[in-house]
Amino acid sequence: MIFARAMRREFVQNAVAISVALLVILLTTFLVRLLNEATIGKVSAAAVGPLLGFAIFNFLPILLSLACFMAILLTLSRWYRDSEMTVWFSAGQALTAWIRPVLVFAIPVMLVVGALTQELVPWAHGESLKYRKQVSDKNELGLVRPGVFRESTDGRRIFFIESTDKSGETVQNIFVSDNQPDKLGITVAERGRQEIHDNGDRFIVLEKGHRYELKPNSPELREMDYAQYGFRVETSSADNSIRHQDSTPTRELLMNPTRESLGDVVTRVGTTIMVVMLALLAIPLAYVNPRAGRSANMILALLVYFVYINLMTISRAWVIQGRVPFALGLVVPHLIMLSVLIWGFYYRMTASTRGSRRRVLKTRKAGA
């Protein structure tokens, strides 16, 4: 019981520390990407915070599985280095006795990862797509940065503005290229703003400017001056937005069993099973010879982790391509790692037995 309590406490401490460190790294990387998109006008600056919040859900499954794996690995490795495992074995406990306490720690993590991958991550991905769409439709001019050419969401217009006021709602010195099937319009204005009518229609209103219209393959040129000129911003309804596979819950993917949807199910279910498999693999991989180097087992563990991820990626691709059945693609990566797990336990336990026999023989020879 003393060992079990100490083990659980150290598992939790290491898992929390690793999760926080990985989350900070991932969020910083994603934040830099979002700020770059905001700088060039792909997303609004006000959307950076919500999009970063949605991204946390996308990171959590892999982050938690890796944190669980590394926490068990680091804890048991330290116990080997500090000879605490020697006390464990001297008390008559085998290496397999670690399976139960490790599962007690890993199964709750697996359940959390399962809930995330099956429901919360698809929801967060869908909400992120909708939010990007809504922000883009809501403020066509707001996504344009001063000094940068920006294409509209429907691809028909190109905007350029020189500056904005302090509120950001009114822009100064605007250039708009409007490409229509029967004509090309060039519009310049001193000021501009966006208006939303009661029926939901959105218009960009330009003030005090000039407009030039040219017809293709024709010398005709139309020029006009205006006090106000407005054109409607075409937006698509959120209900008609493209349904991405990543934003569809697992139960809906199973109700529509296409190759692509089944390939996603392979990844989602595999990510959940991977938590327990990696936790158990950490037991034989954690062995460290106190007299030898301390990094060999970490390198091997990371290699096993990346091999596992690649096996699931290959299985997903083969299911999508129709090269293997869904059931086979779902179980094969885990069966391969299960065989590695069984071999790891067998090798580590027999190696310990062989080492004990060699020590006994040496002691007898020295006594003789």
- C-alpha geometry: elongated
Largest sheet: 6 strands, antiparallel
Q: Please give the alpha-carbon distance between the first and last residues.
A: 41 Å
Please trace the helix and strand order, writing H or E for each element.
HHHHEEEEEEHHHH
Structure annotation, total helices: 8
Overall mean pLDDT:
78
Number of strands: 6
The order of strands across the largest sheet is 1-2-3-4-5-6
The gist of it:
The chain is an alpha+beta fold and 368 residues long. The chain is 60% helix and 16% strand. The protein has eight helices and six strands.
Description:
The chain has 368 residues and is of the alpha+beta class. The chain contains 8 helices and 6 strands. Helix 1 packs antiparallel against helix 2 and helix 6 packs antiparallel against helix 7. About 2% of the residues have low confidence.
